[in-house]
């Protein structure tokens, strides 16, 4: 991969998946030796074959029902047996957590009681350990989440709100919240619109309830033209003119594409809301969007 940077990026250029593969191998040995553990499988990028040198390792563990409480009390010891850590953030609704090793490898681990797991219904997985025949014998692909292009109405309505609401932030000379608003409108609204053009709700494997449409991986889900559009947006500084430049560029990109996608999908475009937001923006700031 070519990088446009004045920094050497020495470690980035040398990076491979070898550390994650070694961690998976160590975890497999630890789990095979633990009589409480019946089965272990991978989910995420290492399970479905699109991992790279910066991918997390996602481990799902099936334990004997009689040992659920014991594992809940001692799972951090299992983590340390896999790799010494500098941080373990427990998950609030499951036994397990997000773990960071001393070499800054990120792995997630979750423990399930055997009675709560139906191995035949697991998708996007690759088995590592199976002492009791509870898992499929081969990797199971993840079903495609891509669908036909659709109209992302919440993103459109949020963008029109942000376009009008940012006038008050600029009016109060709050340049830091205003600059944050540019980023929010880009990531929550324009990116979501671009993804919807391609039939993606989100780049996340589990998007339900999460307001952000992407995390660390976006390029594979966008066309070259879409990515070039995002890259062409003006640099952002904590200054009024920079904020206005940012919103002008976003509006000129977002609104024509949003109208076009509405026509393409047969959705109703909120023309009155657009007229109110654009009119308020233009007369308040003395700027023409040229739309």
Helix content: 40-55%
**In what range is the share of β-strand residues?**
5-15%
Q: What is the CA-CA span between the terminal residues? A: 38 Å
Please count the helical segments.
9
Q: Order of helices and strands, N to C? A: HHEHEHEEEEHHHHH
Q: What is the strand arrangement across the widest sheet?
A: 3-4-5-2-1-6
Describe this structure in words.
The chain has 291 residues and is of the alpha+beta class. It folds into two domains: 10-130, Beta Polymerase, domain 2 (2-Layer Sandwich), CATH 3.30.460.10; 153-285, no CATH class. It contains nine helices and six strands, in the order H-H-E-H-E-H-E-E-E-E-H-H-H-H-H. It has a six-stranded mixed beta sheet. A hairpin with a 4-residue loop joins strand 4 (95-101) and strand 5. Helix 5 packs antiparallel against helix 6 (175-197) and helix 6 (175-197) runs parallel beside helix 8 (240-265). The longest helix has 26 residues, at 240-265.
In short:
This protein is of the alpha+beta class and 291 residues long. The chain has helices spanning 10-14, 18-33, 45-48, 68-82, 153-171, 175-197, 224-232, 240-265, 271-285; strands at 37-43, 57-63, 85-90, 95-101, 106-113, 125-130.
Provide tags for this entry:
single chain; 291 residues; Beta Polymerase, domain 2; six-stranded mixed beta sheet; 6 strands; elongated
SSE blueprint and pairings:
Layout: H1 10-14, H2 18-33, E1 37-43, H3 45-48, E2 57-63, H4 68-82, E3 85-90, E4 95-101, E5 106-113, E6 125-130, H5 153-171, H6 175-197, H7 224-232, H8 240-265, H9 271-285
Parallel strand pairs: 2-5
Antiparallel strand pairs: 1-2, 1-6, 3-4, 4-5
